[in-house]
């Protein structure tokens, strides 16, 4: 799956497609319509990559790698072409920020915080601390609302019953 995607050369070809335009970039930089055309080409590439990922022909890790490589190459090649870099860079920068690895990181961080909060509650309950004090500490230490603290406490209490 992933290795065949890269050994076929498709992954590298897409990430390096900007080289095709390298010599034309100074001219493209002066023409808004050509910048939009270039942007359209990259949007089609990103759409095709996303479709291949959704069809399981491309792993999330490979998708991440291609997007990052494409962004780096395009950024370096367009450094002297302010108009191209701004427009294409904005789109590609958004793609980089929305990669599955970042979403996975955020999800993992959220799950880790939830596990930490639950362990905190269990520990305090084992120490005989009252629910009101636990709730107060949760709100203070984890900067959550009283309603959210109640949800966590109820969840832990339902597990221990």
Task: Write the topology of this structure.
Elements: H1 2-7, H2 10-15, H3 25-29, H4 32-54, H5 60-77, H6 82-97, H7 100-126, H8 131-142, H9 146-160
Helix pairs in contact: 4-6, 5-6, 7-8, 7-9, 8-9
Task: Please tell me about this protein's structure.
By secondary structure, the chain is mainly α. It has helices at 2-7, 10-15, 25-29, 32-54, 60-77, 82-97, 100-126, 131-142, 146-160. It folds into two domains: 2-98; 104-160. The protein has nine helices and no strands. Helix 4 packs parallel to helix 6.
Instruction: Give start-end ranges of low-pLDDT stretches.
Output: 1-9
| Radius of gyration from CA coordinates | 24 Å
Instruction: Bin the helical content.
Output: over 70%
- Indicate the multimeric state: single chain
DSSP E strands, number = 0
Give the overall average pLDDT: 80
Largest sheet: none
What structural category arises from helix and sheet content?
mainly alpha
Instruction: Determine the number of helices (DSSP H or I, runs of at least 4 residues).
Output: 9
Termini gap:
46 Å
Tell the overall outline: elongated
Q: Kindly estimate the percentage of residues that lie in beta strands according to DSSP.
A: under 5%
Topology as a string of helices (H) and strands (E): HHHHHHHHH
Give the domain tally: 2
């Amino acid at each position: 799956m992933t290795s065949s995607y890269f050994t076929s050369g498709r992954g590298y070809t897409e990430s390096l497609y900007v080289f095709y335009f390298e010599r034309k970039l100074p001219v493209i930089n002066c023409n808004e319509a050509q910048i939009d055309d270039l942007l359209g080409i990259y949007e089609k590439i990103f759409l095709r990559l996303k479709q291949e990922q959704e069809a399981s022909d491309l792993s999330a890790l490979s998708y991440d790698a291609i997007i990052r490589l494409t962004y780096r190459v395009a950024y370096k090649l367009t450094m002297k072409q302010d108009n191209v870099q701004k427009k294409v860079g904005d789109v590609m920068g958004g793609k980089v920020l929305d990669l599955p690895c970042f979403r996975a990181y955020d999800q993992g961080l959220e799950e880790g915080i939830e596990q930490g909060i639950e362990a905190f509650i269990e520990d305090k309950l084992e120490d005989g601390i009252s629910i009101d004090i636990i709730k107060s500490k949760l709100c203070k230490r984890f900067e959550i609302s009283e309603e959210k603290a109640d949800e966590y406490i109820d969840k832990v209490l339902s597990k221990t019953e």
